[in-house]
Amino acid sequence: MRYKHMAAGVVAASLLTLVVTGTADAKSRPCGPTYKQEGSGSLGTPYTLKSKHDDDGPGGSFVVGEEFEIHTTVAGQTWTITFADNGKVFFTGDDVSTTAGIREQHATANQPGVTQHMTADARNHTTGETVHGFVDVLPEPACGG
User: Fold this and answer.
1) Distance, CA of 46 to CA of 40 (rounded, Å)
2) Is residue 87 predicted with pLDDT exceeding 50?
3) Mean pLDDT of 115-135
4) CA-based nearest residue to 140, from 34, 39, 49
5) Fewest beta carbons less than 10 Å away: which of 44, 51, 90, 131?
6) Please, what is the average pLDDT of the chain?
7) Which residues, other chains included, contact 71 with Cβ-Cβ below 8 Å and sequence gap of 6+?
8) pLDDT at 32
9) DSSP tag of 47
10) C-beta separation of 69 from 47 below 8 A
């Protein structure tokens, strides 16, 4: 009976070590902070722009990802969205809003040693509202920068 309790204790300790180790690895990703801007469009619609270095590009390459959310609650409106990195457009497309808003995510190549001026622009085809967000993503040596 005593051996059953010892075995259960060893298994529990092993599982605890596995959980703690997994958590530590997830927190130690080397790709730096998330840069974030929140604001409002020309007619008051709120938005959030986030950008950061990441190592999840093709073949594990370093990229700078951009996530743009337009917090509209009006469904069925078409918005044209454009992402650029230091003025060079890397995504343009139309998105139709839902009551949960709009969310676009795209990545561009990392530029080592360069501050990347990331912009997101949007125009609502129905209302004419425009949104312009930007963040400066600093070079991150631990993530190819």
Assistant:
1) 4
2) yes
3) 98
4) 34
5) 44
6) 84
7) 45, 46, 47, 48, 101
8) 87
9) E
10) yes
Look-up of token digits 């370093």:
62
Rounded Cα distance, 65 and 85, in Å: 10
Alpha-carbon span 130 to 128, nearest angstrom: 6
How is 89-125 classified by DSSP, letter by letter?
Answer: EEEEEEEE-BTTBEEEEEEEE--TTS-EEEEEEEEET
Does pLDDT of 3 surpass 60? no
**Alpha helices (runs of H) in the chain, residue ranges in sequence order:** 2-27
Nearest residue to 135 (alpha-carbon basis) of 120, 114, 121, 125: 120
CB count, 10 Å around CB of 120? 27
> What's the DSSP call for residue 57?
S
Q: How far apart are CA 76 and CA 93, in angstroms?
A: 16
What CA–CA distances, in Å, run from 68 to 40, 93, 103, 121? Answer: 13, 13, 6, 9
Contact 66, 83 (CB under 8 A): yes
